[in-house]
Every structure is written in structure tokens, then in C-alpha cells.
Amino acid sequence: MTLVSRSSSLERAVDRAGDRLEASALAAGGLSAAPVRKAVGAAPSLVRALAATWLTPLRLAQGRTAAGVAMVAAPARSAAAMGVDGDVARASTWTTQMLGAREIALGGGAWLALRRGDGRAARLWLAAGLVADAVDALAVAGAVGRGKVRPALGVPLIAVATTAVGVSTAALAADDDPT
User: What is the dihedral of CA 154, 64, 105, 162, to 10 degrees?
Assistant: First the structure.
């Protein structure tokens, strides 16, 4: 697959994922669609920029693993970077470490499967990560919509999660092996 067609494929996948996330947020009731629409609007250009340079399922897995390690090693700082108030971030380090462990497992599993060339296992790990990223995007959109997370922090988080959904969706939809 060429870089241009890969970028177009990722952009279409993010657009479709964003449409589904927006519809889910609206269906959940009480959630404002504005943060989702803003993130979805930003994600395709982000995907284009990243796909044109280096974003691949392997690098997505590596980034997820690195983020998880940071959450386990420095939970208060990681939570604060995601917009959690300092006192709350310090009081809930255990939840950030749990999230970090999830990221390490999902990223590490995908990374290992991709490095080994095990297409079946890679698809399973990428699908699991896709589900986690979709739920993350919805959860953050809900928090932004309820005023629990500032849009300046929430929208980039939604864009990152939506972009990850697009990368995983494109890899899973591709005819060729994601490895």
C-alpha cells in the first residue's frame, strides 16, 4: 500500500470512526456532541500529517506501551497531563496506574505480535486497542460535555483516541497483513 493510499485509507477510517463515536455520544443522552465534532474535525488532518510521516500500527503499539509505562511510573504527573486536578491526580494514582497497566498490556501485546509477524494475534490486539480507544474517546467527550474536563485538554485527547481508532480500523480493514 502506498503512503498516499494509506493516508487516504486512514483518513476515511477516522471519519467513519468519528461518525460512529459522535452517534454513540448522542445516543448516550445528555452528552454534548460539540467536543466530539471538534475532535473528529481535527483528527483527519492529524491522521494525514502522522500517516505521511511515520504512524503505523507498530508505532501506535510502541506509543501506547510508552504511555502506559509513564502512567505506572509517574501516575500523578500523567493524570495531571490529562487534565485531572492536582489534588485529585495525587489521590487517585492507583487508577492511573491501572490505566497504565491496560495500556502496557494492549500496546505490548500488539507490539510483540507485530514484531513476530503474527498477523492473527496482531489483529486481535489491534481490535482490543480499538475498543479501548473508542471508549476513551466517548468517556472524555462525556467529561468535556459535562464540564468535568476543560475542552482545551479534552479535545486533543479525543483527537488522539479517534486517530488511534482510525489507524487500527485501517490496519484491520486492509487486505494485507497488519504486520
Answer: 50
